[in-house]
Each structure stands twice: as C-alpha cells, then as structure tokens.
Write a structure and sequence with these properties.
Blueprint (H helix, E strand, L loop, with lengths): L1 H25 L7 H11 L6 E3 L2 H8 L8 E6 L8 E6 L3 H21 L4 H9 L1 E5 L2 E6 L3 H9 L3
Antiparallel strand pairs: 1-2, 2-3, 3-5, 4-5
Length: about 160
C-alpha cells in the first residue's frame, strides 16, 4: 500500500514537472510594441523634454523618414532646442522593411550630423548616437549617453 501511494505521488510529481516544461516551451511571449520599447529607453537615462510625433505625414515632412501604415513605430524628438535628442523605434516582421528603415535612419543620422549641430550639447548628442537593428526592431537613439539607453533596449529584444 505504501509503495502504491509513493508510486502515485512520484507519478504526479513527474507529470507536473513534464507539464511545466512543456508549457514553457510552447509559451509565446507577446510582442513588445514600439511605444513600450521607447518607454524603456526614456526611463534608462535622463532625456530633455521631447515631443512625440505620431502622424506619418509629419514625420516624413520634418525628417524624411517614411513609415507605412503597417509598421509599428514611435518617434520622439526635440523640434527646436539647444539640446538634440531623438528616439526612433520601428518594429516590423518584414526583413526588407527593416533594411529600408535602417537605411532611412542612417540617412537621418547623417543629416543630423551634417545640418543640425550648432551647439556643443547637440554635437555631444550626435557623437553619442546609436543606430541599430536586432531581430525585428530598428532604432536610432540620439543622445550623448545613447549607449546606456541601447543596453536597456537590447535586454528586451
């Protein structure tokens, strides 16, 4: 009788452990949105006051970055300031779109370096800027401590 009870308990424990392992393998984590990723960046270091641009037409008019309606994006910037800070995040499952957005953000960073630096704070921000692509996320962080913000971002993607 004791052997049967011990066998039942061991069987139950093994089934519970097996079920727990199977649940972890099959579990899909929900995708992280561009806004959530931008929030992580904004909380990772101190940014000056920025404005979020949400209209695709405004972004293309002011920055020459073209997002389509299918892309999950987030764009923060300082339109006029002695500081220079930008956060651009785009999330897409299309590899061609990732490459295209990366190229556009590279052009944006070049444009900032060549045409938007007038003060020492702005120069420091552009010199510290990071541009990257990991998995389905493309990003540009323009800030003198952008590398710290990038570390926080990369932990999530």
């Amino acid at each position: 009788m004791i052997k049967r009870i011990a066998c039942l308990i061991l069987t139950a424990i093994m089934l519970y452990a097996l079920a727990a392992c199977m649940d972890n393998e099959d579990e899909d984590l929900p995708p992280i949105s561009a806004n959530e990723l931008a929030g992580v960046i904004l909380n990772s270091i101190e940014f000056p006051k920025m404005t979020e641009l949400t209209e695709i037409n405004d972004i293309s008019r002011y920055t020459y970055i073209y997002f389509n309606d299918e892309i999950d994006f987030c764009f923060y910037w300082q339109a006029m300031s002695v500081d220079l800070a930008e956060i651009v995040i785009a999330v897409t499952d299309n590899n061609e779109e990732c490459d295209d957005i990366y190229s556009q953000l590279n052009d944006r960073l070049t444009n900032l370096r060549d045409n938007s630096v007038f003060y020492p704070n702005q120069q420091a921000a552009v010199n510290g800027a990071v541009l990257g692509k990991k998995n389905n996320v493309v990003y540009l962080i323009c800030h003198e401590e952008a590398d710290k913000a990038e570390e926080a971002l990369l932990q999530l993607i």
